[in-house]
Design brief:
Chloramphenicol Acetyltransferase; five-stranded mixed β-sheet; six-stranded mixed β-sheet; 33 strands; 22% strand; 742 residues
Length: 742
């Protein structure tokens, strides 16, 4: 018996249709369980190849558990390894490399000299089950794979388009040839290299008769501290198995106390700042009372003062109150961009109601659906848009833009138009309802309360250092919640809102000339808009204007290459650059990253930063446990900015707005569906989505949402496919490709 016999078995496996069919089915849609990025090495001289020997008590419990289940210790340790890989990768469908013995299965085959090993892709889906069930599942899976262990890994790799299946390996060493070699090695001895691999993380488990179980980890792509943590996870998993094998593995955390402190406390150590004003319009009213003659808004040659805007909004508020509007009522508003739009928002808020913005640029079907869904107490529209909505039981207030100037002047001298007093109106009442895309194919209304928005407004003022000297660009449609940070913080500090003319849509020469002409100091831009701007700057066009001191981006992932272009193209270092992140359900944005040019560019990705005041970030794995630093998980947002929920969608609200398992009894989290990870510096990096949602120019687009529209517009019986892709020529703007016949 020689190694040639093993080669013959390998060739026979290559010719076997059964082997090929097994591996094709076993590895179909296999996901790569990626390890976290390497952290900066704190101590380059730190020892590597960490090893440990389990205590005799734990070893005895594990042996008894394996015996009770009728499985070898190898299967138990392999199950622990899979759980460790799941912890390190954030994956539930885990594939690792299993070092398998392919020695000849004949008498004295174990005495034939040679390295008879094949490292197999070992795949297992870790469902929510007990430790015992997980070990049995692993054992059954192992038996199934071993029947096909002679199929060479290299052929699987070639069949997989030369893409790796794993970057971790598990090797169980229990051969007689090692007995004499390692007879007197204690725990320190496990640092010796028995099996060297090129994999990012290799785990060797040792067991010898009458001795303990040893574990050695060689993490070539991780730092020494990460290697130690990985070994700690493995030991904690085995101890949990031994302690209570009937418990669910999914309901347990294996992080150290120090890690939990970082994730729960240190990284979320934001100031707890009480609100200055309980209502989002109260700061504006205070400013209007003390500085009525200061300019509040500028639009196409028209400059309106705080006193004029406040008085006009009061008149509308009193009119709404006469119509019976009460706190938590919803008032829909459909108006084109103009100062009347701003007045309407303030008037609705002053009357105690929540405004529901309806962008007239949206399709009529969407507007009709929103109007029916929110069932407003009142509808406010411009005169030119009145015909778009059917007459019904809902009262309608019509505004004629041609009369705006006279109305503002008249309102400013009307003594009856004082600030309405609504004693029962408080922070827990609705401020606005913004409709976003949804997985159901229909938009859903997000219910945002005054207390949610007030925290954002005051945090935004402090983050951006806003003052009465600022002129803030009002770029976003009022149907986007980004308009909140453009309008209300500016009015609270006494700044001036500069409304973008409707025709200025791209950062070209005309756009920059407009901003320079009005001396804009702060611009809050969609990320894709800023990407396009940096593309213009590369070509020496659309350079920043002198008065600009702050650029804020948000709504999509900011790409590092564009920040590099921003810096290389000569953007003055005096211009602060801030990246924000957050969905409507967490009130505009919940994390912030302020780039410091003196610190250089980020090394890999632009972080989305740290939580804003009175907010928390939890990154959880698929089992609801805290993801370790560097490991990708779903971003959950908590704190006072978490919205009330979805309008008339109790099931969806219950599934997306959940209790915070790490907070007090009243704490809630919003499940964003976004994937991210913590860095060792306590910043969050955005990675992507866990579903098929895409962002196109700031719009949430559910790919399934297009299906009903195309079905309605095309003959029955046809099947179509959709693709969202980037157009390189437009520097990162997305577009929907035309539907294609499937």
């Amino acid at each position: 018996m020689t190694p040639r016999h093993t080669i013959a078995q390998e060739r026979q496996a290559l010719r076997s249709e059964a082997h090929r069919a097994f591996w094709a089915g076993y590895l179909a849609d296999c996901e790569f369980a990626a390890l976290p990025p390497a952290e900066p090495e704190v101590d380059p001289e730190a020892p590597r190849n960490e090893a440990v020997e389990l205590s005799e008590g734990v070893c005895a419990q594990l042996r008894a558990l394996a015996s009770d289940l009728g499985v070898p210790m190898r299967s138990l340790l392999l199950a622990a390894h899979l759980r460790m890989v799941a912890t390190l990768s954030g994956a539930e469908d885990v594939t690792t490399g299993l070092v398998a013995n392919v020695r000849p299965e004949v008498t004295h085959g174990d005495q034939v000299l040679g390295l008879f090993l094949n490292t197999l892709p070992f795949r297992q889906k870790l469902l929510d089950m007990s430790w015992k069930a997980l070990i049995r599942q692993t054992h059954d899976n192992e038996i199934g794979v071993m029947a096909y262990r002679h199929y060479p890994y290299f052929q699987l790799y070639v069949d997989h388009h030369r893409k790796p299946f794993y970057e971790t390996t598990f090797n169980y060493i229990n051969f007689h040839v090692y007995e004499g070699l390692h007879a007197d090695i204690k725990a320190e001895g496990f640092r010796g290299d028995i099996e060297l691999t090129n994999n990012a993380l290799a785990v060797d488990c040792f067991q010898r008769p009458n001795q303990g179980i040893g574990i050695k980890i060689d993490a070539r792509s991780l730092s020494a501290s990460q290697e130690r943590r990985a070994l700690g996870y493995f030991v904690a998993i085995l101890e949990a198995m031994a302690r209570n094998p009937e418990a669910s593995h999914a309901g347990q955390s294996f992080l150290s106390d120090a890690e939990r402190h970082d994730l729960l406390e240190r990284f979320n150590a934001t100031p707890s700042v009480p609100a200055v004003h309980p209502l989002i319009h109260r700061g504006f009213e205070v400013r209007a009372a003390t500085h009525p003659d200061d300019v509040a808004v500028i639009h196409e040659g028209l400059a309106l003062t705080y006193g004029q805007v406040n008085a006009s909004a009061n008149r509308l508020a009193h009119q709404l109150l006469q119509l019976g509007v009460r706190p938590d009522d919803q008032v829909a508003i459909c108006m084109a961009r103009c100062p009347d739009q701003l007045v309407a928002l303030l008037g609705i808020l002053k009357a105690g109601a929540a405004y529901v913005p309806m962008d007239p640029q949206h399709p009529q079907d969407r507007l009709n659906y929103m109007l029916q869904d929110c069932d407003p107490a009142v509808l406010i529209v411009q005169q030119s848009m009145r015909a778009r909505f059917e007459a019904g039981a809902t009262p309608v207030i019509t505004i004629d833009p041609a009369e705006s100037v006279d109305r503002f002047i008249q309102a400013s001298v009307d003594p009856a138009a004082g600030n309405p007093q609504i004693p029962e109106l408080g922070a827990s009442h609705l401020a606005y309802v913004i409709y976003t895309s949804g997985s159901t194919g229909m938009p859903k209304g997000v219910l945002v309360e005054h207390g949610n928005a007030v925290n954002l407004i005051e945090a935004h003022i402090r983050t951006c250092e806003l003052s009465e000297a600022d002129r803030v660009l009002q770029l976003a449609s009022f149907g986007f919640d980004n308009s909140i940070t453009e309008i209300f913080p500016t009015l609270q500090v006494g700044g001036q809102i500069v409304m973008r003319p409707a025709e200025l849509l791209v950062p070209d020469h005309e756009f920059m000339a407009f901003l320079a002409r009005h001396g804009v100091t702060v611009a809050d831009l969609p990320t894709s808009f800023w990407h396009l701007w940096t593309g213009e700057m590369r070509l020496g066009r659309s350079m920043p204007w002198e008065t600009l001191r702050l650029v804020i981006v948000g709504g999509e992932k900011a790409e590092l290459r564009h920040l590099e272009a921003w810096s290389a193209a000569g953007a003055p270092q005096s211009i602060r650059w801030i990246n924000t992140y957050g969905p409507t359900e967490a009130t505009v944005y919940a994390t912030v990253f302020a780039w410091d040019p003196d610190q250089g560019l980020p090394t890999s990705e632009i972080p989305i930063g740290h939580p804003v005041e009175n907010s928390v970030v939890r990154i959880l794995d698929g089992f609801g446990q805290l993801s370790p630093v560097g490991v990708v998980g779903e971003i959950h947002l908590g704190g006072v900015q978490v919205a009330r929920g979805y309008h008339e969608r109790p099931e969806l609200t219950q599934s997306r707005f959940i209790a915070d398992p790490y907070g007090d009894a009243s704490s809630r989290l919003y499940r964003t569906g976004d994937l991210g990870r913590w860095t060792s510096a306590g910043l969050v990096e955005y990675v992507g989505r866990n579903d098929f949602q895409v962002k196109i120019r700031g719009h949430r687009i559910e790919m399934g949402k297009s299906r009903p529209a195309w079905r309605h517009a095309t003959p029955s019986g046809r099947r179509w496919s959709w693709l969202a892709r980037k157009r390189v020529a437009t520097s990162g703007w997305w577009r929907m490709s035309p539907p294609r016949r499937a």
